[in-house]
Amino acid sequence: MSAALELRGVGLTYATRRGEINALDYVNLQVGDGEFVALLGPSGCGKSTVLKLAAGLISATRGEVRVASRLVTGPGRDAGVVFQKPNLLPWKSVLENVLLPARTLGMPIQPARIRALQMLELVGLSDFAGDYPFELSGGMQQRVGIARMLLHDPQLLLMDEPFAALDALSREALTLELQRIWGQQRKSVLFITHSIQEAVFLADRVLVMSPRPGQIVEELAVPLARPRTLETLADPQFMALCQHLRRYFTHG
Asked: Which parts of the sequence belong to the ABC transporter domain (predicted)?
């Protein structure tokens, strides 16, 4: 399997007033073409740091990061990113928010507009293209963020706890929605989460990170059939996988 994302021997050390902090220590991971990989770990372990390295937003102290076999030296077109908050511009319509990457990436505007409308249809927001962010629910705003991420058709999707700020029902609905979108698009995904259930439900593989300095301490394949449904949550195999992962986060 060719790698959409690869981290080889990656470490990150940064300076603080109290001295150097070793955030990541010799991280190795791969996300294959069309593969959905969840990265699970405790707060402060460096999950979001891994995502920022993959996105080219920060640079590693040691080791190398490659996206589509190219060495990452800064933000590029091969990856799209969704953060915890969609960070929509309140004075721009939904359609204009989705079109924002077109301007920064120099995409021809008319084809980009057609693509933006297609992505809004994909995430179920065709009827809201002319609305403004304040008129949308939190879940709908996050769907706009997903549509914006997909605008320039990146091969790799980097998602940093995109549903963390949502209520339980919205989070459940968007988890199912993301699975549907991924099933249609078959992009490569690195999905950061605190939720064991979310990781097992969505992923082909779950990578577990240790507390800081972050390292990959387990790689767990998820052999559950797709598409996964709410009934999957009661599947004995699903529950056994969750229980297996829970031992990393249960102390005492």
From this structure: 7-236
- Express each pLDDT in 184-239 by its tens digit: 888 999 999 989 999 999 999 999 999 888 899 999 999 999 999 999 999 999 99
Confidence (pTM): 0.92
The residues with which 37 forms a beta bridge, in sequence order, are 190, 205
Beta strands in the chain (DSSP E): 3-16, 19-32, 36-40, 62-67, 70-71, 79-82, 156-160, 188-193, 205-209, 216-221
Domain count, the chain: 1
- Which amino acid is present at 78? D
Contact status, residue 198 vs residue 161, Cβ threshold 8 Å: no
DSSP letter for each residue of 177-215: HHHHHHHHH--EEEEEES-HHHHHHH-SEEEEEPSSSB-
Is 140 a member of any domain?
no
Which domain, by its residues, includes 55?
1-73+186-252
Q: Residue 66: which CATH number?
A: 3.40.50.300
Look at residue 223 and give its three-state secondary structure: coil
Dump pLDDT digits (tens) for 5-56.
999 999 999 888 888 888 898 999 999 999 999 999 888 888 999 999 999 9
Name the token pair of 37.
Answer: 């990989």
- Distances 208 to 9, 26, 120, 183, 237 between C-alpha atoms, Å: 16, 14, 33, 24, 19
What is the SS3 assignment for 156?
strand
Tell whether 39 is covered by a domain: yes
The reply to whether 92 falls in a domain is no
Q: How far is C-alpha 126 from the geometric centre of its chain's CA atoms? A: 23
Q: What is the pLDDT of residues 148-179, one digit of tens each?
A: 999 999 999 999 998 888 888 888 988 999 99
In a domain, 112, yes or no: no
